[in-house]
Specification:
With 229 residues, the protein is of the alpha/beta class. The chain is 34% helix and 28% strand. The chain has a six-stranded mixed beta sheet, with helices on both faces. The model has no long low-confidence stretch (mean pLDDT 93).
Length: 229
């Protein structure tokens, strides 16, 4: 398998406060990788570092054989990383359609493909994003990321705070992406769904990678020790 993303010995800081101490992870082409850990262990900081959203960090971050270290976030996005950030963050003063085409790149994921994936977005294409429900906004942000036709899609807590119905819908979408051999890095607390979907798992504890392996090796003892579930 071709290596798509390799993070080695990653350390990151917020001002003088160090958040990451030794994070290591790899994603192969067409693989779904889950990044796990209790709250505050460095998962979102790892993603922000990969996407160039942290000012101070050290280590190796290579994507598609290109070093991302010190690249601005917009260049990293242009290289093919699509981020669905925690907390949704649609462009609230734009319509659904304007959100989808704002950063679109030609490719498999066009408006028809997104509307097929999320029919509700087509129904609401002329609505302002701020008027959507939380679940609809999450669909919109996922659709917007896919419209960039990314080589790697990053989902940071994509189902958090949503109703069970919407959560189920988003998991079905991730299954569709898996069937299309999409490369995905996902943070989520729904271990049950992740065990069925992800090819590989990484667990962070206090800013360090403390375990990695496939679903078959992620025992209940390991989950209890590092995740408290």
């Amino acid at each position: 398998m071709d290596k798509l993303l390799k993070v080695k010995s990653l350390k990151s800081w917020y001002g003088a406060s160090q958040a990451l101490f030794d994070v290591n992870l790899e994603i192969n082409q067409g693989e779904i990788v889950a990044l796990l850990g209790r709250n505050g262990m460095g998962k979102s900081t790892t993603i922000k570092s990969i996407c160039g959203l942290i000012n101070k960090y050290e280590g190796e971050i290579n994507f598609n054989k290109i070093s991302l270290v010190k690249l601005p976030s917009y260049k990293i996005a242009q290289l093919g990383i699509g981020l669905v950030p925690e907390g949704r963050r649609a462009f609230s003063n734009l319509t659904v359609l304007e959100n989808l085409i704002a950063t679109a790149v030609d490719g498999e994921w066009d408006l028809d493909a997104i509307y097929n994936l999320f029919p509700r977005l087509e129904e609401r294409k002329n609505q302002m994003a701020f008027s959507l429900s939380g679940g609809e906004q999450q669909m919109l942000v996922i659709g917007r990321a896919l419209m960039t036709n990314p080589k790697l899609l990053i989902l940071d807590e994509a189902t958090e705070g949503l109703s069970p119905t919407i959560r189920s819908e988003i998991w079905k979408v991730i299954e569709v992406l898996k069937d299309k051999s999409a490369s995905i890095l996902i943070i989520d607390k729904s271990l049950k769904q992740l065990l069925d979907l992800a090819d590989n798992f990484y667990i962070l504890e206090k800013g360090r990678t403390v375990w990695n392996g496939p679903a078959s090796k992620l025992t209940s003892n390991i989950a209890q020790e590092f995740l408290g579930v």
